[in-house]
Amino acid sequence: MEFAQLEKKYANFYAPRFEILLEGEDLLSKGMVIAGVSVEHSLEEAGYFSFTVEDAFDPVRQDLRSVSDLFAFGSKIEIKLGYAKEMKRMLVGVITSVAVDFAESGSPHLTVSGYDATYAMMRGNKARSWDDIKHSGIASAIAGDYSLQADCEDTPVTHPKLAKQEGESDYQFLKKLAEQNYYDFFVSGDKLVFKKPGMKADPFVKLEWRKSLMSFRPDVNLTGQVTEVEVRGWDLKEKKEIVGKAQAGDEWAADTSKGRKSGGDYMKQVFGGKVVQTVRRPVGSQAEADQMAKAILNKHAEGLVNGSADTIGIPDLLPGMRVELAGLGKMFSKPYYIEETSHSIDTSGYRTTFKVKGNTI
Fold this sequence. Notes:
By secondary structure, the protein is an alpha+beta fold. Helices cover 19% and strands 43% of the residues. The protein has 8 helices and 23 strands. Strands 1, 2, 3, 4, 7, 8, 9, 15, 16, 20, 21, 22 and 23 form a 13-stranded mixed sheet that branches. A hairpin with a 2-residue loop joins strand 7 and strand 8. The longest helix is centred in the last third of the chain and has 16 residues. The protein is globular and about 80 Å long. The mean pLDDT is 93.
């Protein structure tokens, strides 16, 4: 999408506004004065929201305004951000924290915050097992436990028996399965996403420095890069070692156009040989060992390029999509994969801050 199309969609980014629904009721329509709101999304953490209520104190009664009734823990919150009539639902979650600032001067401020449905997955530990199932099947089953739609991409390996150990929440367990497959795992609205990173997707929008891109701070770092990964396990049935391998060139959706190289390529160039990481994992087959080796290699590879950026508030900009950054010179003008976003509206306006990563430069 061209940036001009977004300008048209959002009325030239004029008059940013937000809606906060508490158990379906609009807080602004109730006359509540809310100074600012922020919504954060990440591929690694639960979605988070916070907003500040300025008129939280009743000067006549000398008491807070029905805080326990209005902002009870577990109350459902829905937040929308946008411009004029074009609004986008950014997060559905529950209240988990209420903080009050009785400042030296002025009226007390009330800050309400909480998390999306991912938070429920982080609570408690479970023990269960599955037979003859793929990791994607497990993700779909757990999505149903939380009344979430399952947006799960098929994983390649069927596991004869997969036992879930004690001491893990559903979130920790799914995160582990995602890492073994080099998949993204996160909650978006009422949907559980469990799929391969969309690094091959077309960039959602092109942002140009000093025009639509306010700032960009990239960091290229060879620390943690390897040329090869070996996963070693033991085949109990055949009584022999299983060795899964992945090497430079196996990186998922690596952009090698215009002479760009992966971290593994640079390690070969700098050190003139192999930099191998060997790990031991319980694996049930050669296919599982190979898949795990590729996942570990890709996790290292995506750490080659990281960066943070700022732009005008764009509600559509979210983790799990690609964005093209331009006007940054030959090295850094390229598509990147978004891993975190922070959307905030306050008296200064609406701004989106986002973090990106990439496996070539």
